[in-house]
Design goal:
- The protein is α/β, with parallel strands linked by helices.
- The chain folds into two domains: about 5-240, 3-Layer(aba) Sandwich (Rossmann fold); about 290-475, 2-Layer Sandwich (Nucleotidyltransferase, domain 5), CATH 3.30.420.
- The chain has 20 helices and 17 strands.
- The strands form four sheets. It has a seven-stranded mixed β-sheet. Strands 5-2-6-7-1-8 form a six-stranded parallel β-sheet, sandwiched between helices.
């Protein structure tokens, strides 16, 4: 039988008022809301919405990815009260809390440790599990760094609760019954595609800290479209999402004035990721998936004027050890007045490597023009011209000087994509300079097109936007379709001037 919030609150008050330790002990094990509010003293959680979340999490605690708005008790209900409840139910369990950095996981453990040391209700109700004297104990079995161990029969080497970093400070060795991932993804972990992949790899490695029967809890916030949480969802971990607002836009926990004030002071990006759990922002996406047009058959080369557009890696950043990409696109201006992406390269290349790549594209496509975006890339053009003199193979290069901000240039593409005037291949497989095969189209869609403006790199979109650069549009034109010859004598009957498919 379901118990309403009001009924539960009334019963909880009676149990506490009576001081019935036997009843308290049972409720701590079976009623997380009672444990959270009446015993642990989190009185700000006295709210029907929080009561419902406790019931929901208790019903399905494992193998769920809980993505809730910031400030809505996900860590308090799951990591704090949840771990305490698991240990009160079974003191033989071992738990490992994992966060992006070890310090964050240790902060969760420290909060639980203080409750076990100083909460009078817990100490009175569970003398068989908790040590009243532990508050002054700093040994390896009772510390934030070494983990804490409650009274148990087991002689396992693992502490009852350990804290570990995921990417920084991950534990080596040990096998735990419950792995709790809280804030495994943070802004730092999605700062670059490489960092996002590093976090995903670290999560995969951390699964070795479990056992064959291990359970997993995941609690977090979305900061990027293709983060580790996205990988988890795509690989079968069920998402449980709760937002600060309901379907009508009304707050579920905060007073309306507080919700409005937070919306007023938070940036759109922070509001989208931390409150709406949408890392690109509701309605903020510039490019829509349905605008992406695919061709199965490439237009005949004779029906197109072709240009190569180049956006070099920033020379200064690359020299300092940066990881900028060079993008070289081959685009066709076709008779149907659409733009066709014919070939593309996006790679971290040295000056010699990107020069060799350009020569390869020129030989393959025989372009009508080569356009090079000049943003600190003077050495690139000079090197290509020197290479032309060495080989005796010459082609013109038009330098593109940018006076419009990058974001504004990329927005030039929005109506072009929206009106189905940019067509791309289904796949465009290339091999990087390190020998790895990659699908340019998959990278383009995943890392830029579908997530812009919340991207780590926008080199491909920026280079493609050069189809609308004034220098390019003054040179590149759409070919005119051949017209049938005019009749030598005027038409005299309707059948002579009607179209063939009339």
């Amino acid at each position: 039988m379901d118990v309403t919030y009001a009924e539960a609150r009334a019963y909880h008050r009676r149990v506490i008022a009576n001081g019935d330790l036997a009843a308290i002990r049972v409720l701590c094990k079976t009623d997380r809301y009672f444990l959270l509010t009446a015993v642990l003293g989190v009185t700000v959680a006295l709210h029907p919405w929080v009561y419902e979340r406790c019931r929901e999490v208790e019903a399905e605690p494992d193998e769920r990815l809980d993505l809730w708005s910031r400030g809505h008790f996900k860590s308090t209900i799951i990591t704090y009260a949840g771990i305490i409840q698991e240990i009160l139910r079974n003191p033989e369990i071992t738990v490992c809390i994992m966060s992006y950095k070890a310090a964050a996981a240790q902060a969760f453990l420290s909060q639980i440790k203080r409750a076990f040391e100083s909460n009078p209700v817990l100490l009175a109700a569970f003398p068989d599990i908790l040590f009243p004297e532990r508050a002054d104990h700093t040994g390896d079995q009772w510390s934030v760094k070494g983990g804490i161990t409650v009274k148990r029969k087991s002689t396992r080497k693992e502490p009852t609760i350990a804290a570990s970093g995921l990417v920084e400070g991950q534990l080596i060795g040990g096998h735990y019954d419950l792995l709790v991932y809280d804030d495994a993804v943070v802004p730092e972990s999605v700062s670059t595609p490489d960092q996002a992949q590093k976090t995903t790899n670290a999560w995969s490695m951390s699964l070795n800290l479990g056992t064959e029967q291990s359970r997993h809890w995941y609690i977090g916030t979305r900061y990027a479209l293709f983060d580790t949480y996205d990988y988890m969802i795509k690989h079968g971990i069920r998402e449980r999402r709760h937002l600060a607002i309901d379907g009508d836009g009304n707050p579920v926990y905060w007073p309306k004035a507080e919700l409005e004030e937070r919306r007023k002071i938070m940036t759109t990006k922070d509001w989208a990721s931390q409150i709406l759990q949408q890392p690109t922002g509701e309605g903020e996406l510039v490019f829509r998936p349905e605008w992406m047009q695919r061709y199965r058959t490439m237009p005949d080369r004779s029906s197109m004027n072709v240009a190569i557009l180049i956006d070099s890696a920033n020379a200064k950043r690359t020299a300092k050890g940066g990881s900028d990409y060079t993008v070289e696109l081959v685009v066709g201006w076709c008779r149907d007045r659409n733009y066709y992406l014919l070939d593309a390269v996006r790679d971290r290349m040295s000056l010699a490597e990107r020069t060799a790549c350009l020569f390869e594209l020129v030989e393959r496509w025989q372009p009508n023009g080569v356009f090079w975006e000049q943003v600190g890339a003077m050495s690139d053009v000079a090197h290509v011209r020197e290479r032309q003199d060495q080989t005796g193979w010459h082609f013109g290069i038009t330098e593109l000087h940018q006076t419009v901000p990058k974001d504004d240039r990329i927005h030039w593409l929005e109506p072009t994509f929206r009106n189905s005037r940019i067509w791309t291949p289904q796949h465009l497989w290339r091999r990087s300079v390190t020998g790895e095969a990659y699908d340019f189209m998959e990278v383009f869609e995943r890392e830029e097109y579908l997530s812009y403006p919340s991207v780590n790199h926008d080199d491909m979109l920026d280079d493609l936007a050069n189809i609308h650069h004034p220098t390019v549009t003054a040179t590149m034109t759409f070919p005119i379709a051949p017209q049938p010859p005019l009749p030598s004598t005027p038409a005299t009957t309707p059948t002579e001037w009607r179209p063939a498919n009339w």
